[in-house]
């Protein structure tokens, strides 16, 4: 017999509704504590509370609460070579504008 989401719900029965206030509260509190947490990590924290949901359910629930984007974009690493190149470029632009 197949299981649904690997949480023990059989495919013959429907999984219980997980959009209850308790699970939403747990998700919001986790996001407030650690804003860069991923949907996969949030799913794991809900499973510790015996609430089995899919990652897409976590994202949809957070989006309804006004919390978007669980994977923030990061700035590129500024290494010495890139900093020197940008300084030279700015200097050349400054010389070109001055003439």
TrEMBL record:
<dbReference type="GO" id="GO:0003677">
    <property type="term" value="F:DNA binding"/>
</dbReference>
<dbReference type="GO" id="GO:0006313">
    <property type="term" value="P:DNA transposition"/>
</dbReference>
<dbReference type="Pfam" id="PF01498">
    <property type="entry name" value="HTH_Tnp_Tc3_2"/>
</dbReference>
<dbReference type="InterPro" id="IPR002492">
    <property type="entry name" value="Transposase_Tc1-like"/>
</dbReference>
<feature type="domain" description="Transposase Tc1-like">
    <location>
        <begin position="25"/>
        <end position="83"/>
    </location>
</feature>
<dbReference type="GO" id="GO:0015074">
    <property type="term" value="P:DNA integration"/>
</dbReference>
<protein>
    <recommendedName>
        <fullName>Transposase Tc1-like domain-containing protein</fullName>
    </recommendedName>
</protein>
């Amino acid at each position: 017999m197949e299981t649904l989401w690997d949480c023990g719900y059989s495919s013959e029965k429907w999984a219980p509704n997980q959009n209850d206030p308790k699970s939403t509260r747990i998700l919001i509190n986790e996001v407030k504590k650690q804003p860069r947490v991923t949907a996969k990590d949030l799913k794991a924290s809900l499973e510790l509370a015996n609430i089995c949901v899919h990652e897409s359910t976590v994202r949809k629930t957070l989006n309804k609460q006004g919390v978007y984007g669980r994977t923030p974009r990061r700035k590129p690493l500024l290494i010495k070579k890139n900093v020197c190149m940008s300084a030279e470029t700015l200097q050349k632009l400054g010389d070109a504008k001055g003439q």
